[in-house]
């Protein structure tokens, strides 16, 4: 696993300030609360397809391990644990890890949380690795992807999501959403967004095989949905090549 740091201290501080409000569905992380069900739908479909599981199985990750990288306060990490996984969350902001651990204790979930870099996990391997809306905040995307690939166990599955670098994403996520307060100001830097082709290339360079890319679209009437339209945001899954 790559040992170089990919944490941007400014980004970590920005998200650490949001920690106490992370679980408030009407607070500063309201957009993530709206995104989460759609992201989970994609992850569940990827899990079922990868391990050839019954979609009606309530614990598809039973007996498997899961790692959520850039976990924030655990919005995605907790559902992974509820799917039966031995779950670990890692985040650059200690404040987020503290909020995540406190919330997990309140809902009686046994989740290990770690503050800092992936390499603090001492080269552990996981059956499922997720990293949602994170790569656009790191200092070195290529090193970050290599770290995610290194955390995958043989036969493991990696799922990521990130905004696409398009005029639509700049308009929707920065010019509109941040300006009106739907997303905290300063959350995004448009020039750090990666296109699906760019992220796919990074995955291939890290020895991964990309198996799916699906758009994540938004409409005022329907909210967020999985879509063929990748202009705003997209989800991507890969396995070891």
Short description:
The protein is α/β, with parallel strands linked by helices and 241 residues long.
Structural features, described:
- The protein is α/β, with parallel strands linked by helices and 241 residues long.
- The protein has one domain: Vaccinia Virus protein VP39 (Rossmann fold), CATH 3.40.50.150.
- It is built from seven helices and eight strands; from the N terminus they run H-H-E-H-E-H-E-E-H-E-H-H-E-E-E.
- It has an eight-stranded mixed β-sheet.
- Strand 6 and strand 7 form a beta hairpin.
- 43% of the residues are buried.
- The mean pLDDT is 91.
Q: What percent of residues are in strands?
A: 15-25%
**Would you give the CATH topology?**
Rossmann fold
Largest sheet: 8 strands, mixed
Oligomeric organization of the protein chains: single chain
Element string (H = helix, E = strand) = HHEHEHEEHEHHEEE
- Distance, first to last CA: 16 Å
CATH superfamily label:
Vaccinia Virus protein VP39
Side by side, the strands of the main sheet go 3-2-1-4-5-8-6-7
